[in-house]
Design goal:
Elements (H helix, E strand, L loop, with lengths): L8 H12 L3 H13 L3 H25 L5 H10 L1 H16 L1 H13 L7 E4 L2 E4 L1 H20 L1 H29 L16 H13 L11 H4 L7 H30 L20 H8 L3 H36 L16 H13 L7 H16 L1 H12 L12 H18 L2 H23 L16 H14 L12 H19 L6 H11 L3
Antiparallel strand pairs: 1-2
Helix pairs in contact: 1-8, 1-11, 1-13, 2-9, 2-11, 3-9, 3-11, 3-16, 3-17, 4-5, 4-13, 4-16, 5-13, 5-15, 5-18, 6-7, 6-13, 6-15, 7-13, 7-14, 8-11, 8-13, 12-13, 13-14, 15-17, 15-18, 16-17, 16-20, 17-20, 18-19, 19-20
Length: about 525
């Protein structure tokens, strides 16, 4: 059986926005403000622009190759098996973290009323046994909704989409109208003219939940194989979701900063605290006497993460499904139910997702790990696009990215900057995870599971210097590293590094094989 084309342009856009607007808006405005003060607004602009540029490269690729689990399939076409495995492994492991992140957020907010769900360990909110039971129930609910009914998924997605956007817009308008202290924005511009100010802004992008807030744009990539009217649907979903959410996020950040009482800033932005700051916007609303808004926000604290978690269960299963198709993982993961949903992949993700609560306790620990891996998988967008422009120059493209030779290097540079800004403490953990993935690849190769000819080791030679270079620069850099490469100079180092790796990756591309063409023709034949 094959996956059905079921998502319209509008439904895919709503899925992408729904997946993007999760727990980040509930936490990130506080964490970003603590790091960068009022200049956190600049952090949102940087993350939004960077993500939009990266997203544009995936828009062309996903229309050209409308396959399920594009994160695994597209690198397979441009660079072969080994590169595809590394990228899809990192992307899958990162995406797998999302559903547990959103469940953690739901339970952390709920702990305000049900203290038995969470307890603090060294200041980090960790699930209790009772909390773990509820985490299991919520994770299972996401899976059941995905498996039981496509119509149920779309209807539930529509309801969540409308409710979440309504609450965000209402919160912004009410907070600005009720309390808006313009003096809280003093110093935001001055931060742009100091080294420490810019370092704080960029740290907020990576570790304040800002970059995490935009990770949902790739749902359009993973679901391209099930989408109608690709030329409209994919660019609309991938780029439209980033732009739409950027507007919402900036509004939230402005409203949050303006609503803060001057007393909360007495000890500086890094020490910002107020009653109820475990749920920042609810805490602000309570301080302003907006009881009705507090209740609405606590309801949304369940609804928003639920929507994002639900959509990530949908798209993450497609990555695992694609990895199984290529042969990286057992074939039984390709099992589809009567409605052609990848049931086996969904349930495996459920089990592994539950295990992630143990080594990554707390919302922030999960977020940092997810961002560090996700942006590395983004790097294949600009690389693969340049490769396919060279290998398939005459292939008809329903969507063509203008000025690709300029946009792709910029997008690749942004990917590496975002990864670097996550800091050494996160990057080294990702390096360990990548080593485990390579072990799985070796086992799959020895057992002869791979369904495509050749390992693509030659076309994947750039992977080793790329990943090891990122780790080394992070270790020597100014974001949690040894500061051997000082802030400012690290931009130049990463710029030169990015150009060298991009050149190597494009030069060592795989030839456009019959496999790539056949995959595309098989995908579009179902329109």
């Amino acid at each position: 059986m094959t996956l059905n084309r079921r998502f319209t342009p509008v439904s895919l856009l709503m899925l992408s926005i729904n997946g993007m607007v999760g727990s980040a808006w509930l936490f990130a405005p506080l964490y970003a403000a603590k790091i960068a003060g009022p200049a956190a607004i600049i952090a949102w602009l940087i993350a939004g622009v960077a993500t939009a540029v990266i997203a544009l490269t995936f828009a062309e690729l996903s229309v050209l190759f409308p396959v399920a689990g594009g994160t695994a399939q597209i690198p397979q076409m441009s660079h072969g098996t080994f590169t595809s495995f590394i990228v899809s492994w990192i992307a899958w492991l990162s995406a797998l973290t999302m559903a547990p992140i959103e469940v953690q957020a739901i339970l952390q907010y709920a702990s305000t009323y049900f203290s038995s769900l969470i307890h603090l360990e060294n200041g980090v909110p960790v699930l209790t046994g009772f909390g773990y039971l509820w985490a299991t129930i919520l994770m299972l609910a996401f899976c059941v909704i995905n498996i039981a009914s496509y119509k149920g998924l779309v209807r539930f997605n529509l309801i969540l989409f409308l409710f979440k956007v309504f609450v965000i817009v209402l919160t912004v308008l009410v907070l600005i109208r009720t309390s808006f202290n313009t003096t809280n924005f003093t110093g935001g511009i001055s931060n742009m003219f100091s080294v420490t100010g810019w370092q704080a802004i960029l740290t907020a992008v990576a570790t304040g939940g800002v970059a995490f807030a935009f990770t949902g744009f790739k749902h359009g990539v993973e679901l391209a194989g099930e989408t109608k009217r690709l030329a409209l649907a994919i660019p609309l979903a991938i780029v439209g979701s980033v732009v739409g959410c950027l507007i919402l996020y900036i509004g939230l950040q402005v409203a949050f900063i303006g609503a803060l009482n001057s007393g909360a800033l007495a000890n500086g932005w890094q020490q910002v605290s107020f009653t109820g700051d475990v749920g920042p916007f609810a805490g602000l609303a309570a301080a302003l006497g907006l009881v009705w808004l507090v209740k609405l926000l606590y309801i949304d604290a369940v609804v928003s993460p639920s929507g994002a978690g639900l959509i990530y269960v949908t798209s993450t299963a497609r990555i695992l499904y694609a990895m199984s198709q290529i042969g990286y993982l057992p074939r039984w993961l390709q099992y589809l139910n009567k409605q052609n949903f990848p049931v086996a992949a969904i349930m495996v993700n459920f089990v592994l997702g539950m295990l992630l609560f143990l080594p990554l306790p707390g919302w922030q620990a999960m977020v940092s790990f997810l961002v560090s891996g996700m942006v590395i998988s983004y790097a294949m967008g600009p690389i693969s696009l340049l490769c396919m422009r060279l290998e398939m120059p005459n292939e008809k493209r329903l969507f063509r990215l203008p000025a690709a030779r300029l946009v792709c290097p910029i997008a690749f540079y942004f990917c590496n900057l975002l990864s670097y800004w996550c800091g050494w403490e996160t990057i080294y953990k990702l390096a360990v995870a990548m080593a485990i993935g390579i072990l799985f690849f070796i086992i799959a190769s020895i057992r002869g599971r791979l369904t495509v000819p050749g390992l693509g080791l030659k076309s994947g030679l750039w992977i080793a210097p790329y990943l090891s270079g990122l780790v080394l620069i992070s270790y020597l850099g100014a974001f949690g590293g040894k500061n051997v490469i000082p802030f400012g100079w690290d931009f130049l180092v990463i710029g030169i590094f990015s150009l060298v790796i991009l050149y190597l990756a494009v030069r060592n591309r795989a030839s456009a094989s019959d496999y790539a063409i056949d995959q595309r023709l098989a995908a579009i034949s179902t329109f």
